[in-house]
Amino acid sequence: MRKFKCGFVSIVGRPNVGKSTLLNSLLKEKVSIISKVPQTTRYIIRGILNLKSTQIVFVDTPGIHLFKDRLTSSLNILALNALKDVEVILYVTDSTRPPHKEEEKIMNSLALRKTPLIMALNKIDKSEKYIPDYIEMWQRKTGGKKGSLKYFIPISALKGTGLDKIQEVIVESLPQSPPFYEKDTITDFPIFYRVSDVIREKICSLLKEELPHNIAVEVESIDNQGSLVKVQARILIAKKSHKLIVIGRRGSMIKEIGTLARKDLEDMFGKKVFLDLWVKLEKDWYNKPRVLKELGYTGI
To answer: Does the pLDDT value for residue 191 go beyond 70?
Structure first.
């Protein structure tokens, strides 16, 4: 009888390479929000994949990039700290974009580590043009050696291509260990942050590039009693001029945000949801350590 294996796998990469899409595809369940807007993922999100004799705990991380504000610094620290005490690092790149300075920063860190590493060359459903560039850059960083790298694996997180291979290689690399979580657990992401992320995902999808980097959502309360869940949440804006954009003409935008978020929250809770949203001005919140801590962007 095969002994049980279990371990942690950190998913890292620069913004918009498809880390959250990959996590959701591997789990066949949506636990991490998705958007084309940079900094969509702001938390460390664990997703648990339960196989017949293996439990894989994936750790999704914020994208690593070179912005200079305190929020970015906090998120970069979160992402790099998530590389500690894991059994495998899953390094996701975007084969439709050439590697730039952010990739240099990530590779400089990863090349020094002894943890088994898989480079997932994502978005091959769109293009494979820059795959040789990532391989060449890695070889240059490691002096022509693979180092801790076990495989380069071309994948499409969106289409599911190559994910069986990734799963197989991860299982090979995990130690024998009892499971860390109960079999029916998909994530241990705190409910307040899950609700916050659902609302912020809708803001990102509706406002596109216009505001989302400067917007945060803090859930004030969740009353899950009886047949109705009551959620109160505030949308933080950094400038007074942003208020009208978020609220919209005659409240049209915030109403649409609430309508879309409510649908996902009702799926999450399995019952009707009353969502009370309001907008609060917190000037330059992304540079204030107190606010970042309250929002959970300095670790949970």
So the answer is: yes
